[in-house]
Every structure is written in structure tokens, then in C-alpha cells.
Design goal:
Blueprint lengths: L3 E5 L3 E5 L2 E5 L3 H12 L3 E7 L10 E10 L2 E11 L8 E2 L2 E2 H5 L7 E7 L1 H4 L12 H21 L3 E5 L16 E5 L7 E2 L6 H11 L3 H8 E2 L2 E3 L2 H11 L4 E3 L2 H10 L10 E2 L16 H18 L22
Helix pairs in contact: 5-6
Length: 325
């Protein structure tokens, strides 16, 4: 296993001594939180400043420099190391878990990148995709992630979806990656028209990249695709391995449906983790539990004017009503 993994996501959950900071819209945010509790090795979490959160508990470190639309930008960077639990303190030069046989939690370090572009983006994910300000936000985010990869030298880059996939176009030292597709429908794509030389010039100026690189590494089937650089990186350095999706069925569907993934040896399906300790357990005996179910079913039937039938089945779906769910 890689000793240190860097994951970059706009969604995040940061638990600290004085509380909790969240920027969550869906399953990726929940997974980001679970990673911090269950990742098997050291984890570096990189996030963009979100306007409603308070990061005053973090320490300012060396800033990051980037160029977006020809304009030099300086991003402030803040760091927070999650403290080890008291039971894991050092005992005579050894970690307590080694002495007592306990599992040590992973060492978690958070980096939050701050710039007005991030503070003013409104939602966690800026929209619409075709707006220049949205692309400028992703250009700054990609360069910030790349600078931290080069600075921190992780053993592996965990890239969820497309949002930081273009960071691999800026890194000075190629490194192993894992791409985790939570929603392959959104690839950072713009397909309003067939992309050619003029469009490559336009994107190149925003992202501070040579137009020919943009054309070769970001255009797929005539459209601009932010996910493609990461997939191409896996093809070039990993024989195409390292692309995953959040379920086996979804992995099979994505590999067949999306041209950017065609020709890969596999898109591996990895079920979203749900540790038993995270599951809600009803503190009731069997009879009390059955009575609660009966009352809940009756409430639903009365509320929505259904036939009151204790033997009727009620199907509940939690999630987006889309095919892959």
C-alpha cells in the first residue's frame, strides 16, 4: 500500500477540536469524511475555501502561485493536522496501539486553499460549466492541487471525479493515481460546439497551457473534457489501470457509455464503504421495533391518502432518481 495518499476534493468534512466544518452536497462529501476515519495510511486532504465555513483553527503556510487567464494569482494555504487520540500517545518510543494491539487511526493532514475565486464561487461546484468564471475557478483549483502534489510528494493521488483531474497537466513529477468516478455523467465537459484550433487557444489562455496540449490532452470526441488528462495519465504510466467507479454495475455502464473510458483494460467497481460502526442501530427489542414499523407505515398511508393496510409493502428510495442509482 502507498504510505501517503493525497486526495483533492471540493466537498469536505473537517472535524477539529472546536467543532466541524462541512462543504457537502452528496455522496462524495460523505466518502471524504469516511476516508478520514478509515483510510489505512497517512492521508493528505486538499480542499478549496468555502465561504460559509470558519477555518480560523488552521495555520497559514507557504502560499501557492498560479496563472489564470494570463493573470498571476497567489493563493493562501492553511494547514491543520488532526491530533491523535490520547490512547495513541507515545509510550517509551512506541505508539500505544503497538503496545496494546489497537488499530491506530490514520495520520490526517488538511490543506485549505484560499483565494477570492474560491470564496466567491457561490456553490461548492461552480456552474454553469460553460461560463468563463467557472473555468477560471477550475483552472486555479487544478494548479493549486498540482503545486501541493509537487510540494508534499505523496505516493499516490486519489482523484475523485473530474474536478482536479487537470492537475496532472501541471505536476512536475508524475505519480501513481486512482480515479474514483462518483458520477461519470459529469466529466467537466463542454460540448456546445465542435472544438478546434480557436477553442484550444481560448482554453489554453484560461488554464495557462499550450493550445496544442489542450487539443491533444483535453479534447475528446470533439468536446472539451477535464477528466481526460487523468485517464490519459493512467494509460501512459499505469497501463490503463487505476480507474474505478462506486459500484460494479456503474463501472460496467460507465466503461461502455463514456468514450473517454473506452479502451481501458477495466473500470473497477468498488462498493462505497459503510463500516458497521456507521450504521444506525435501533435500540429496541423485536416487539418494539415491529410496533414502530407498524406505526410508521400507518402514518405514511394516512399522510398520502393510501389504503390503510398493515400488510401492504412500502418501497423507499433515497438518492437521485437516475439510472445508475
Amino acid at each position: 500500500l502507498p504510505r501517503t495518499v493525497l486526495v483533492a476534493s471540493l466537498e469536505h468534512i473537517i472535524v477539529h477540536e472546536n467543532g466541524l466544518e462541512k462543504a457537502v452536497t452528496g455522496g462524495l462529501g460523505k466518502v471524504a469524511g469516511l476516508l478520514c476515519d478509515w483510510h489505512p495510511g497517512a492521508l493528505i486532504c486538499v480542499h478549496a475555501w468555502f465561504q460559509t465555513n470558519n477555518y480560523a483553527y488552521m495555520t497559514k503556510v507557504e502560499p501557492i502561485h498560479a496563472v489564470v487567464s494570463g493573470k498571476p494569482m497567489i493563493c493562501q494555504v492553511y494547514k491543520y493536522e488532526r491530533p491523535m487520540p490520547p490512547q495513541m500517545e507515545i509510550i517509551e518510543g512506541e505508539v500505544a496501539d503497538q503496545v496494546e494491539g489497537l488499530d491506530a487511526p490514520p495520520k490526517i493532514t488538511f490543506y485549505v486553499v484560499d483565494h477570492p475565486v474560491f470564496r466567491n464561487r457561490g456553490d461548492i461546484y461552480p456552474v454553469p460549466q460553460t461560463r468563463k468564471s467557472t473555468l477560471q475557478c477550475y483552472a486555479l483549483w487544478s494548479q493549486a492541487v498540482a503545486r501541493l502534489i509537487d510540494r508534499l510528494q505523496p505516493d499516490l493521488f486519489h482523484c475523485p471525479d473530474f474536478h482536479a483531474a487537470m492537475a496532472l497537466m501541471y505536476v512536475e513529477r508524475p505519480l501513481p493515481i486512482t480515479i474514483m468516478l462518483h458520477n461519470a455523467e459529469y466529466q467537466g465537459s463542454i460540448a456546445t460546439q465542435h472544438m478546434g484550433r480557436n477553442e484550444a487557444l481560448w482554453f489554453g489562455e484560461i488554464f495557462d497551457l499550450p493550445p496544442e496540449r489542450v487539443r491533444q490532452e483535453c479534447f475528446c470526441e470533439g468536446k472539451f473534457c477535464m477528466l481526460k488528462p487523468a485517464v490519459d495519465h493512467a494509460r501512459r504510466y499505469q497501463a490503463g489501470f487505476g480507474v474505478c467507479a462506486v459500484s460494479r454495475n456503474y463501472a460496467l455502464e460507465a466503461a461502455q457509455k463514456h468514450a473517454v473510458l473506452w479502451g481501458l483494460p477495466e473500470v473497477r467497481g468498488i462498493e462505497n464503504c459503510m463500516p458497521e460502526s456507521e450504521r444506525m442501530v435501533a435500540p429496541l427489542d423485536a416487539a418494539e421495533y415491529a410496533e414502530c414499523r407498524r406505526q410508521a407505515k400507518l402514518f405514511i398511508q394516512q399522510k398520502y391518502k393510501l389504503t390503510e393496510n398493515p400488510k401492504a409493502r412500502i418501497f423507499v428510495f433515497v438518492g437521485r432518481w437516475v439510472k445508475q442509482k
